[in-house]
């Protein structure tokens, strides 16, 4: 499977400090590269999925052009604060603590909570603004040092280019935070930014209470239970909290609390004297003037009339904000901040119980942490982005005293240093999730007018998600172009820009291609360690997960691989250079960063084995109440119905079985025994046109419902999945309706059809093993169905059943109709009951008919039902039938050939009038009408027909002749007419010919027999259908004979096909078949002989066997055959050449003779590999001897290098190679001129000298470990030696010329300087 690289890092030279093993680097061959999904399946089979991530380097020469115009392509970016990626939970805690302090400050002044300002559409994070100003010394210092623009660039990175940014930010700070800063400095010094003060608030409050108690005043701070909240489990009304302590310290007491304060503080004095303030009491002055928060250029997120409501909530009207339902009121929890209600089971993830203490809803949590997510950045072209990154990288690393052009591992070290340890803000731009369908792809694609090899390549990320074939992608069945999943996303990266830990949507495979630029560094955690990874993440950030349980879906948080490695979570690294792919496996967490400017493109794909993870992803979406990208059930059903790949069938059969059993179990749950069950075309009441758009979303868990859903009469348009049906409302199950689009029987048939596509699968046995006797049904339901069937049979057997009873019986069957094949008997009886109701409707329709004509057989069927299905009066219909039957009997006598003489033509007309007045159509009415109307014209018609049959052209069918005879018999009974006799004779002739043609068809006739039958048919006046088969056989036989004669089939394969066709023709062609077999035998021998002559190396024995096979076993092949003559000549020439070669001595014979023998070998088919090897060896030895004969000269250094490389590669003479190496050693020793013994250890890579890179120490004052490099650029040879060598041994003149350039790497360990 191609070549792979799997190296550790950091051994023997400069490298990354982060000790993370490298994931495999795979280099597929060109053949493996042709089918990407087959290759990736082979990777998983080989166990590469255990790494979670791999790198794939395309074969040499596969390099698609970068299809983006770097000067005009413009994209938007997002701003990433790198120093906050891992410590986001700490910053979130600081931000929330700060907002509590700020809220308490404003409430103590009688003001509304502060409004979050927005500058030019970007929300300003007041915590970040306050932190930036305080860390720079406060408002006065920032103003004096004119650092407001620096602050503005930090908090409003998107608007760095605004000229008056410093003014806008300063005014925003003055009107939002300046009073708070002064207040904190003046009165509450310990309430500054450090969160340790927040943790000490309760202790400070207790200490303050103790001081006042000594002075005679007792202050008890307690939260009074709000009338808008329901009691919470485990909460206590007098519990002191940090927020209550903060309120007490700032002054939210009974006397000083504002009207809008949401949590009033209660003071309990001991007596009247203790009410008086003491000198030791803490008294905070309340400012008199309110601050005007209005500003022209700043928008506010809250409405003008926002205030804290003290109106009690009517619990009878409380409903869930997520699903909109008000049922299960005991499981509705109210937010402590906004008073909105939420079902505990609708939250993401669901709460198992009502939490103790304060609880905030997802909206309030989002508003509190929204400023910590990535914000929108500026727009760039590719060239602008590249230049900006180059400038940023140079300035950043120069400011750290490092090289301005770092390697990827130096960028890695700095990146994790910032993420883990740095408090210094570091903001970068990242052009992520750019829609290639709208902006353009980095690959050539037909969508944008490109054609050619790379536009159609399966590795083109625009084509990969929908590849077909044996190893196909399941996403090809999705009709929508989903951005980021089917339509690739572009990623424009710069230094430090990162993609945080995550798994793909639906745990898809993902593939990323780096088009241009510097490497992307990836980290991957395999799927088998995903749960452990999440556990470590939650353990490291418990508060953040408490606020945002779906944090890992947000893609905004990083966690150092060091932490994961310390927790025994396997992590692997991939360095993705330009021109390489990175593939992540399902459920493999991955993240990383960019070491500089680059442009990458990524998309998802889903081979059949991806279904092993899709159900897990759906369960994960359901747990966190997140909307999936597509419907799992719809995709699985469509794949099972339409995908004909046996690989897909084998991969998905277990998942379809699991889906059927799961759906059966869900429908059979007792609480789902709804009163009605209804089959629908789709579960959505407002279906769309896209894939899965006709599937409704569960109002509780947000998952698609493809197969079934549940609704209730109380909310007709409110659908939930069967797993959430128990929570949908408090109505009785009789009010609910189960809607389904497929029965379990249809799903079982789908499974059986799928098994039929699995190679070697016994469908019947497998179905029995998987579903048992009752299929997907339970024995209990089967017994219920049997009981229902007995009731239905009783109704049908007794007859005269009340209509209402039949309808009730059908309604009671609805709970069985969605079942499996075990319910087929119920369906059959339902069909019979529905037929009974239809019988009653038809009877009622007949009785209500006025001028409508009724068919006699139909009415007979209605009144002849035994037993009568429903209790209906049929006397009127019975009288109508008797009257019509009497008329019909008379008409039959009029039309009968024996009794027609008893009736006159007038009587026949009177009979026709009476029949037309009847409400029921007489069966012979049409015949009687035809007889009366056409009696006089029949003879003329018969004469015209017989004359028409003898003319050339298309003949009428036999049915026309039979119809003419029938009408003649019915209209003219007893009449002796010549034309009638002629018609009868023609009928007999046709019947005779039909029998003859059938006999010929049943046998295997000759062509002569076929011609005789067709000749007889030409004299018949009508066409005979049986002759068509005779005519077809003759035509097929003649066409086959023509193909043999024209010689269009030349190859053996074509001839065998032709022979096979001839043998299957139902005509006796034995002579021609035998001739064809002889022709095939000759052609097979000819092709075998030509193949032997075309072979590169001739095998004399094989060729003689082919000659013997042809001459002795194939008719028409003898010694004079051209191919036999050529083969004999080839054998003779090869024998002579082999003899000449045997006489040559590879060591002594002239090279010209050896080369001539090699050249002649290609003509005669000889194997001259040993001669070629001898010529190469002797040529190398001659070249080396020439170099050694000359004096040592630096101009020949490259010649030494080339000769040594060739010698090592081909295993040449070791003596000469040692001589060459000694010659090089002598040259180097002479150039050094030190005369001492050295050990040289070449380093692995080139870069700045590091402490670990080169080791230097003395051994007995005469040995030194160092690194030697040759300066290949200077006119004369010069070398780089370590500083310690220069200080100890090198003189001043040599030291000035030592420049570190190209590494000189020789495979020796030591040598002693010879005397030169």
UniProtKB/TrEMBL annotation:
The keyword DNA repair does not apply. Residues 1-21, 253-290 are annotated as: Disordered. Its main location: nucleus. GO terms for biological process: regulation of gene expression. GO terms for molecular function: DNA binding; histone H3 demethylase activity; zinc ion binding. Residues 92-185 form the ARID domain. Residues 317-367 form the PHD-type domain. Pfam families: ARID, JmjC, JmjN, PHD, PLU-1, zf-C5HC2. CDD domains: ARID (cd16100), PHD_RSF1 (cd15543). Residues 265-288 have a biased composition (Basic and acidic residues). Residues 453-622 form the JmjC domain. GO terms for cellular component: chromatin; nucleus. PROSITE patterns: ARID, JMJC, JMJN, ZF_PHD_1, ZF_PHD_2. It comes from the Eukaryota. It is found in: Nucleus. Gene3D superfamilies: ARID DNA-binding domain, Cupin, Zinc/RING finger domain, C3HC4 (zinc finger). SUPFAM superfamilies: ARID-like, Clavaminate synthase-like, FYVE/PHD zinc finger. Keywords: Iron, Metal-binding, Nucleus, Repeat, Zinc, Zinc-finger. Residues 23-65 form the JmjN domain. This is Lysine-specific demethylase.
């Amino acid at each position: 499977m191609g070549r792979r690289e799997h190296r550790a890092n950091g051994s023997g030279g400069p490298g990354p400090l982060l000790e993370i093993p490298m994931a495999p680097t795979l280099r597929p061959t060109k053949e493996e590269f042709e089918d990407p999904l087959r290759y990736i399946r082979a990777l998983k089979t080989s166990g590469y999925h255990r790494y979670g991530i791999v790198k794939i380097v395309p074969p040499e020469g596969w390099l698609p052009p970068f299809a983006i115009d770097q000067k005009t392509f413009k994209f938007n970016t997002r701003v990433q604060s790198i120093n906050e990626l891992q410590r986001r939970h700490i910053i979130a805690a600081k931000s929330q603590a700060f907002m509590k302090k700020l809220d308490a400050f404003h409430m103590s002044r009688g003001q509304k909570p502060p409004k979050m300002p927005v500058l030019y559409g970007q929300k300003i994070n007041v915590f970040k603004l306050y932190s930036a100003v305080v860390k720079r010394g406060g408002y006065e210092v920032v103003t004096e040092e004119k650092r407001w623009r620096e602050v503005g660039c930090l908090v409003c990175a998107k608007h760095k280019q605004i000229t008056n940014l410093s003014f806008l930010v300063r005014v925003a700070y003055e009107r939002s935070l300046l009073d708070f800063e002064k207040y904190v400095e003046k009165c509450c010094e310990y309430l500054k930014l450090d969160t340790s003060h927040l943790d000490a608030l309760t202790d400070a409050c207790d200490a303050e209470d103790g001081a006042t108690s000594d002075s005679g005043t007792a202050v008890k701070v307690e939260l009074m239970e709000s009338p808008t909240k329901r009691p919470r489990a485990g909460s206590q009304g007098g519990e002191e909290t940090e927020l209550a302590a903060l309120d007490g310290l700032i002054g939210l007491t009974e006397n000083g609390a504002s009207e809008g304060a949401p949590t009033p503080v209660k003071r309990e004095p001991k007596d009247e004297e203790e009410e008086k303030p003491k000198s030791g009491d803490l008294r905070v002055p309340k400012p008199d003037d309110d601050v005007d928060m209005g500003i022209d250029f700043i928008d506010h997120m809250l409405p003008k009339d926002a205030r804290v409501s003290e109106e009690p909530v009517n619990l009878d009207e409380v409903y869930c904000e997520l699903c909109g339902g008000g049922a299960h009121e005991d499981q509705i929890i109210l937010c402590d901040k906004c008073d909105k209600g939420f079902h505990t089971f609708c939250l993401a993830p669901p709460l198992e119980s009502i939490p103790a203490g304060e609880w905030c809803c997802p909206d309030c949590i989002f508003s509190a942490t929204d400023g910590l997510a990535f914000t929108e950045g500026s727009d760039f072209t590719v060239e602008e982005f590249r230049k900006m990154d180059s400038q940023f990288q140079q300035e950043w690393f120069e400011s750290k005293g490092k090289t301005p052009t770092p390697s990827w591992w130096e960028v890695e070290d700095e990146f994790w240093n910032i993420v883990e340890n740095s408090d210094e803000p570091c903001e970068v731009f990242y052009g992520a999730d750019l829609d290639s369908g709208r902006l353009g792809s980095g690959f050539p694609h037909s969508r944008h007018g490109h054609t050619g090899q790379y536009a159609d390549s399966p590795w083109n990320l625009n084509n990969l998600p929908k590849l077909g074939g044996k190893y196909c992608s399941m996403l090809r069945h999705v009709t929508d172009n989903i951005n980021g999943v089917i339509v690739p996303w572009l990623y424009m990266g710069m230094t430090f820009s990162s993609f945080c830990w995550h798994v793909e949507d639906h745990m898809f495979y993902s593939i990323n291609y780096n088009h241009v630029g510097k490497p992307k560094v990836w980290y991957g955690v395999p799927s088998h360690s995903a749960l452990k990874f999440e556990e470590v993440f939650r353990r490291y950030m418990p508060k953040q997960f408490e606020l945002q349980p779906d944090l890992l879906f947000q893609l905004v948080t990083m966690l150092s691989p060091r932490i994961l490695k310390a927790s025994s979570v396997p992590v692997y690294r991939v360095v993705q250079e330009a021109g390489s792919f990175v593939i992540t496996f399902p459920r493999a967490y991955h993240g990383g960063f960019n070491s500089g400017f680059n442009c990458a493109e990524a998309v998802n794909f889903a081979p059949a084995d991806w279904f092993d993870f899709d159900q897990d992803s759906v369960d994960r979406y359901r747990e966190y109440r997140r909307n999936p990208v597509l419907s799992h059930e719809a995709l699985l059903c469509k794949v099972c119905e339409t995908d004909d790949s046996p690989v897909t069938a084998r991969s998905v059969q277990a998942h379809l079985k699991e889906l059927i059993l799961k759906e059966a179990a869900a429908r059979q749950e007792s609480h789902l025994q709804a009163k009605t069950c209804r089959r629908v075309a789709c579960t959505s009441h407002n279906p769309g046109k896209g894939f899965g758009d006709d599937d409704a979303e569960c109002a509780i868990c947000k998952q698609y419902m493809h197969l079934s859903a549940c609704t209730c009469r109380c909310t007709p348009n409110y659908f939930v999945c069967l797993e959430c049906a128990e929570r949908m409302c408090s109505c009785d199950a009789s009010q609910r309706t189960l809607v389904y689009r497929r029965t379990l029987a249809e799903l079982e048939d789908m499974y059986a059809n799928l098994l039929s596509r699995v190679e070697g699968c016994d469908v019947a046995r497998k179905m029995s093993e998987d579903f048992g006797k009752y299929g997907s049904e339970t024995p209990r339901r089967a017994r219920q169905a049997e009981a229902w069937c007995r009731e239905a049979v009783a109704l049908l057997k007794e007859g005269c059943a009340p209509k209402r009873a039949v309808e009730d019986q059908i309604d009671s069957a609805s709970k069985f109709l969605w079942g499996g094949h075990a319910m087929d008997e119920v369906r059959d009886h339902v069909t019979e009951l529905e037929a009974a109701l239809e019988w009653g409707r038809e009877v009622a329709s007949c009785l209500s008919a006025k001028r409508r004509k009724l068919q006699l057989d139909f009415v007979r069927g209605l009144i002849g039902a035994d037993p009568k299905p429903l209790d209906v009066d049929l006397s009127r219909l019975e009288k109508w039938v008797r009257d019509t039957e009497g008329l019909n009997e008379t008409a039959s006598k009029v039309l009968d050939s024996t009794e027609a003489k008893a009736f006159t033509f007038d009587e026949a007309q009177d009979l026709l009038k009476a029949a037309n007045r009847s409400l029921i159509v007489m069966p012979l009415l049409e015949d009687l009408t035809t007889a009366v109307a056409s009696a006089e014209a029949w003879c003329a018609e018969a004469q015209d027909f017989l004359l028409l049959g003898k003319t050339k052209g298309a003949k009428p069918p036999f049915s026309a002749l039979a119809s003419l005879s029938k009408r003649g018999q019915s209209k003219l009974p007893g009449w002796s007419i010549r034309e009638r006799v002629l018609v009868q004779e023609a009928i007999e002739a046709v019947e005779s010919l039909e029998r003859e043609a059938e006999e010929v068809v049943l046998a295997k006739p000759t062509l002569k027999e076929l011609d005789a039958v067709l000749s007889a048919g030409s004299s018949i006046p009508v066409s005979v259908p049986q002759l068509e088969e005779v005519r077809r056989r003759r035509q097929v036989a003649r066409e086959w004979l023509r193909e043999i004669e024209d010689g269009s089939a030349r190859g053996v394969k074509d001839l065998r096909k032709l022979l096979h066709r001839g043998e299957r023709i139902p005509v006796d062609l034995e002579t021609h078949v035998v001739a064809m077999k002889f022709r095939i035998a000759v052609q097979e021998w000819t092709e075998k002989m030509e193949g032997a002559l075309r072979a590169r190396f001739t095998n004399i024995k094989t060729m003689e066997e082919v000659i013997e096979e042809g001459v002795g076993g194939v008719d028409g092949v003898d010694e004079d055959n051209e191919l036999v003559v050529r083969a004999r000549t080839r054998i003779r020439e090869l024998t002579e050449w082999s003899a000449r070669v045997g006489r040559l001595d590879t060591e002594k014979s002239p090279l010209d003779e050896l080369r001539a023998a090699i050249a002649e070998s290609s003509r005669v088919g000889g194997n001259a590999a040993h001669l070629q090897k001898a010529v190469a060896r002797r040529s190398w030895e001659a070249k080396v001897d020439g170099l050694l004969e000359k004096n040592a000269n630096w101009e020949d250094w490259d010649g030494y290098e080339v000769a040594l490389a060739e010698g090592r590669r081909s295993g040449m003479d070791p003596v000469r190679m040692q001589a060459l190496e000694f010659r090089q050693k002598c040259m180097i020793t002479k150039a050094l001129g030190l005369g001492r013994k050295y050990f040289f250890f070449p380093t692995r890579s080139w870069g700045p000298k590091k402490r670990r890179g080169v080791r230097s120490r003395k051994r007995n004052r005469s040995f030194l470990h160092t690194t030697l490099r040759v300066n290949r650029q200077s006119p004369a040879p010069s070398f780089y030696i370590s500083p310690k060598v220069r200080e100890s041994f090198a003189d001043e003149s040599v030291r000035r010329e030592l420049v570190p350039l190209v590494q000189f790497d020789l495979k020796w360990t030591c040598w002693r300087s010879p005397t030169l």
